[in-house]
Design a protein that fits this description.
The protein is α+β, with helices and mostly antiparallel strands. Helices cover 28% and strands 41% of the residues. The C terminus is likely disordered.
Length: 385
């Protein structure tokens, strides 16, 4: 009985000691955890940076707003401790410094020392022609050097100035950008185009054509046989007009329209009109073209007999003859179509151009091959006041 009574008296003391031990253990764990966290905070302390004077020229937004947007985009990245702009303003006023004149490297380093920051970011945003140029410079205050510069050219679209600043900020700190965003806003320089690189060869054309095959024979045949009594080689006179829809430095893409009158020396008047898509390389003077040609010629239905003579279809023609439509002086004028493939070379002498073109129009009944020459004067455009 005495033993049980003693045990009952000791139990509260034992429980009290156990509670104190647990409390001590918990406090020890808390102290260790706090120490570790403090160590991590010291290890992960961010470098400090101040945004100074992001100048604005030719934009609706002025320097304070451009500077604020730059500070905002840099804070979003969460890699620097960005000094508040009001703190910057107060310290600069205390030291008699004007933010509007702080452009030079030595001035920016001096401001960085007064602010006790690791880095200073400065630069400018300027509208120049049809582009917006943003320049950033990152200065290491202790090393007194510009450790990185970034220059970006953007399209003239000021409503997207914040996205442009975001791209430039990521560039200056070495972070990847959204490629689609860069593609939409970055202004990639087009090739230079001037009076010597941009060539227009609109002007008169003259030359000669040769028609081969059965069609050539029909043109040379006497009129009594339905031919045109033409020479093997016929003349061509006309005019070429071209419209340039792409002009990128040495390369041009063209839409060409060529109207011609053919076979005048044979007393004939055979008109043709050609539409071509052309590609020209100005530096070497070479060009290619392809497109449809439209001609008006007299044709009639007939057949070739056993002696290869052309016979016009009539009521006495054999039923089993192979009737075809062929060129015939006795027929009716009809519109015919074909394809023209051309290659050209331009000789330049000062402002005078001498284009030389070879072309072919392949057809089953007879291929047409021709040579065209021309000239034009590249006049300088006068400015209008």
């Amino acid at each position: 009985m005495r033993t049980n009574s003693l045990q009952n008296q000791l139990n509260p003391l034992i429980n009290q000691r156990l509670s104190v031990s647990r409390l001590f253990f918990l406090m020890l764990i808390l102290l260790l955890t706090t120490s570790v966290l403090n160590g991590q905070e010291k290890t992960e302390k961010k470098s400090s940076i101040a945004i100074i004077n992001i100048d604005a020229q030719g934009l609706n937004l002025k320097m304070p707003m451009i500077t604020s947007l730059t500070s905002l985009e840099l804070e979003r990245l969460d890699i620097y401790e960005v000094i508040d702009k009001f703190d910057v303003s107060i310290i600069m006023k205390k030291n008699g410094l004007d933010v509007n004149t702080a452009y030079g490297k030595s001035q920016l380093i001096e401001i960085g020392k007064l602010l006790n920051v690791d880095y200073v970011l400065s630069g400018s945003a300027e509208k120049f022609g049809n582009k917006i140029i943003i320049i950033f410079r990152l200065i290491d205050v202790k090393a007194k050097t510009i450790i990185k510069s970034n220059v970006m050219e953007y399209i003239d679209q000021e409503e997207n100035i914040q996205e442009m600043i975001r791209i430039s900020v990521k560039n200056i700190v070495g972070m990847d950008n959204d490629k689609n965003l860069v593609d939409m806003l970055a202004n990639f320089n087009p090739p230079l185009v001037n009076g010597k690189s941009k060539v227009n060869l609109s002007g008169p054309r003259f030359g000669a054509t040769v028609t081969f095959g059965d069609a050539g024979k029909r043109l040379q045949a006497p009129k009594s046989q339905g031919g045109f009594n033409m020479f093997p080689v016929s003349s061509s006179f006309g005019y070429q007009h071209e419209v340039q829809f792409i002009s990128a430095g040495d390369f041009q893409a063209l839409f060409e329209m060529v109207g011609m009158l053919n076979a005048l020396e044979s007393g004939q008047l055979i008109p043709s009109f050609t539409l071509m898509n052309g590609f020209r390389f100005n530096k070497i003077g070479l060009e290619f073209g392809i497109g449809p040609v439209f001609r008006i010629t007299k044709t009639a239905e007939g057949y070739y007999d056993n002696d290869k003579n052309w016979v016009l279809k009539d009521e006495f023609s054999p039923i089993d003859a192979n009737f075809i439509t062929q060129i015939d002086y006795r027929g009716n004028p009809e519109l015919s179509t074909g394809l023209i493939i051309a290659i050209g070379y331009t000789i330049k002498s000062g402002y005078i151009n001498f284009p030389i073109n070879l072309y072919a129009s392949p057809r089953k009944e007879g291929t047409v091959v021709g040579l065209l020459l021309g000239f034009n004067v590249a006049n300088k455009k006068q400015k209008k006041f």
